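Lecture 7 notes: from sequence to structure.

We start with a single chain of 351 residues. Read the sequence below before looking at the structure.
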Amino acid sequence: MTMLNKFKHVLRLTLLLPALMLSNQVIASVILQYHHVSDTLPSVTSISPKDFDAHLAYLKHNQFNVISLPDMLTQLKNGKILKDNTVAITFDDGYKNNYLTAAPLLEKYGFPYTIFVNPKLIDEKISYAMTWEQIRALAKKGATIANHSAEHVYLHQLNKGENKIQWQKRIKQDLEQSEQRIKQETGHNYRYLAYPYGEFNHALQNIIKELGYVGIGQHSGAVGIHNDFSRLPRFPASGIYANLKTLKSKLKSLPFNLKILENSEPVTTNKHPKLVLQLAMNDFNQSQFVCYVSGQGKAKLNWIATNIVEVSAVVPLKKGRSRYNCTAPSLDQKGYYYWFSQPWIITSNNL
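Now the structure, written as tokens:
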């Protein structure tokens, strides 16, 4: 190798080193989920205008990188590193108070946002939903309009007398027709689906993948390049989760680099599901990895190998929705936590 070639080689390595270092960075990036912004509607899915303003003010004053959901997902799907402390803001159901109350506050702070809507319910002029005229007005101002299914039903459930092939056909028609209505009214065609009620199973995820959608749930956690894009997490920020003090810690969440090895089917009749995870352990200690079960406290951990853990509940899960939430403090980024959530829907019948 000539002296000139050696110099070029060293120069390439020098230029490449920061990129390699950057590729190993873990960035705090989360999606927030809201429903109502109201003082009068059901508290379980509402945040008051005052508290919503406080959320936005905190993001602004602490210089969070608030970007649109399309910007976030495009960068992540392309394997690009986001800026640290990145946030995307989303709303489910397209309530009128999103237009009347939430949108003016978001415009005040200059923040982009996404609203997941139910086109069939809008066409039927259901009382609580925005009109297409209102939705178009928000879209023209920069809001992203995306798919929440036609009429907000449990997509993973078979109708009475329906077989799985009929179910697949119905769900595909629902999603594609809903996407087409959104495109007709707004020009938006992002092919994002926020699962109604945050519920999904493997069969529904397979449809999402086949149709080229991104599937988005309501289970908590951070997002990163290693996420499964058929089950992206969001942090609910309404109701009991509207407390700014607890939200601050969630905004410092980091995405685990993990693989689910066994038992990730969310919809199950098994009240004692065991989840097996393989973890990249380079930025947290095994001893500080802990999981919690909804309404129970700490989960039981069985370390099969240094980086493989089996997670289970101490007592059987109750019928309905539950979660295993797993966290571990970062060694490199003080005050930040890795966060992963596995949702469960315990049913009495196989679907």
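DSSP finds nine helices and 20 strands in the chain. Keep this in mind for problem set 3.
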